Amino acid sequence: MNHRLLPVSGVEMVKVFKKIGFQVIRQKGSHIMLSRGEDFLVVPNHSTIAKGTQRDLIKDSGLSVEEFNDLLKE
């Protein structure tokens, strides 16, 4: 079980969220907004996402850190 957060960029996070059904609905500046039905995520388009922000986005998406890491490696 790997609960360690891996350093990822905003673009990498968006790719993972697309795999679980989120779609990009718009981008304003450095923020990418995704939706999946009633769920919304705003991902900063930075080269490296802060660990706290990353953990919050993963939780809000309904994934565990381990599931996110598995999808990231695919």
Major sheet: size, sense and barrel closure?
A: 3 strands, antiparallel
What's the alpha carbon Rg, rounded to whole Å? 11 Å
Mean pLDDT: 93
Number of helices: 3
Portion of residues in beta strands equals: 15-25%
Helix content: 40-55%
Pfam families: HicA_toxin
Protein name: YcfA-like protein
GO molecular function: endonuclease activity; hydrolase activity; mRNA binding
Keywords: Endonuclease, Hydrolase, Nuclease, RNA-binding, Stress response, Toxin-antitoxin system
Q: How would you describe this protein?
A:
The chain is of the alpha+beta class. It has a single domain (10-73), classed as 2-Layer Sandwich (Metal Transport, Frataxin, Chain A). Helix content is 41%, strand content 24%. It has helices at residues 10-19, 51-61, 65-73, and strands spanning 23-28, 31-36, 39-44. Strands 1-2-3 form a three-stranded antiparallel sheet. The radius of gyration is 11 Å and the shape is globular. The model has no long low-confidence stretch (mean pLDDT 93). It holds the Pfam family HicA_toxin. Keywords: Endonuclease, Hydrolase, Nuclease, RNA-binding, Stress response, Toxin-antitoxin system. This is YcfA-like protein. One of its GO terms (molecular function) is mRNA binding.
Give a short overview.
The protein has helices spanning 10-19, 51-61, 65-73, and strands spanning 23-28, 31-36, 39-44.
Key descriptive features of the protein:
single chain; 74 residues; alpha+beta; Metal Transport, Frataxin, Chain A; three-stranded antiparallel beta sheet; hydrolase; nuclease
